[in-house]
Amino acid sequence: MPTLPPTADLAERALPILDRLIAFDTTSRDSNLALIVYVEQLLGALGVASTRVSNAAGTKANLYATLGPAVPGGVVLSGHTDVVPVDGQAWTSNPFVLTQRGDRLFGRGTCDMKAFIALALAAAPDIVAAQLTRPVHLALSYDEEVGCLGAPDMIRELVRDLPSPLAVIVGEPTNMEVVSGHKGISSWIVTVKGHEAHSSLTHLGVSANMVAVRLMQALADLADMLERDADPHSGFDPPHSTLTIGQIHGGTAVNILAGECTFVFDLRTPPGDDPEAIIAPFLAMAAREDAAIKARFPGTGVAVVRRSKTPCLVPDLDSPAERLARRLAGDNGPARMVPYAAEAGQFQQAGFSTIICGPGSIEQAHQPDEYLEIAQFERGATFMQRLVEALR
Predict the structure, then answer these.
(1) Does residue 166 form part of some domain?
(2) Is 276 noted as a catalytic residue in this protein?
(3) Which of 42, 122, 198, 301 is an S-S bond match for 14, by CB 3.0 to 4.6 Å?
């Protein structure tokens, strides 16, 4: 078990919790229920009831709980329980065993973002014992890493059931600096169904791959246009909306006109850019391609299905969440924006004052040998301790 300096009491208590959280392989393709049961048991031992919000299949769950009085003015601490895959990555230690080397803690999810959850759970006994005048609400979600798919169902229940909180703090890794805005993300799955034939007889079939290439070229041209038209003062790095094709699958053999090709792309937009307007010309082109190949061969076609739609977090530098988090973090720096998407935009869209602030650097997230600096863990512990004092 890693060790910490004896002065870091809350961080010390959070360490075995982080160790347990890392041990749960909660890769998004798998269930997170074992971790949820563990959290339920930790909270239950403190006399804190928690509520699950499950997916349709019952294989994954969000979890929320209120620590303290059921009154307005509390703070929601939000974190996602899923992690990205380790497949094909060259780790030098077991990614699901918390390992200390020097002043760093290694393991999948140490940075993104189980350390924040561990600190919140370690602070739970202090919160309960402090008999706060305003509550802390824990909100843990699933499938953030595949499009923030789990949080919306939980957020709807929070809107319905919670006394109006003062702020939501999403604990994505920000080096414990307050982040005021993030880009939105929309993703789509494009499936082209062709008509197979011998590759020498192109007039007797339709290659799904060839149709898909034309569609992908249109997206590449769109990505170039978005970069050329960037607002250099957007506050984001990169400043423009970005579009990338992340996955491509198609074809059976080199000498067969491809019967099917599927690709997935995402569009990340800063506040002020309308993803629907940006993608409209591509959707129109896909519809034309669909009609053209259907006219030649029934059963062919182009289908474009939205996979996810996560709104951006619009900066509100005078919001209650911004003021509170900056006070707790001791942050007097400039407004910060990040190019990744998170659940913060979903909370804000639901009417919650929201910011992002958590331990670790996003540059370490999703990497082999993902790590969290112990100093960041300790800064996160200080943040939690200050939060308890602020809600007394």
Answers:
(1) yes
(2) no
(3) 122
Are 266 and 331 found together in one domain?
A: no
CB contact at 8 A, 166 and 320: yes
Domain containing residue 247: 184-308
Q: How far is CA 264 from CA 7, 28, 87, 303, in A?
A: 48, 17, 19, 12
Site of tokens 């974190």: 79
For the segment 210-263, what is each residue's pLDDT rounded down to a tens digit? 999 999 999 999 999 999 999 998 999 999 999 999 999 999 999 999 999 999
Q: Which residue among the candidates 40, 144, 290, 378 is catalytic per the annotation?
A: 144
- SS3 call for 101: strand
Q: How many domains does the chain have?
A: 2
Specify whether 349 is located in the same domain as 296: no
**Contact between residue 124 and residue 49 where contact means Cβ atoms under 8 Å apart:** no
Residues 35 and 81 in one domain: yes
> How far is the C-alpha of 153 from the C-alpha of 150, rounded, in Å?
6
* 11-49 per-position pLDDT tens digit: 999 999 999 999 999 999 999 999 999 999 999 999 999
Residue 321 resides in a domain: yes
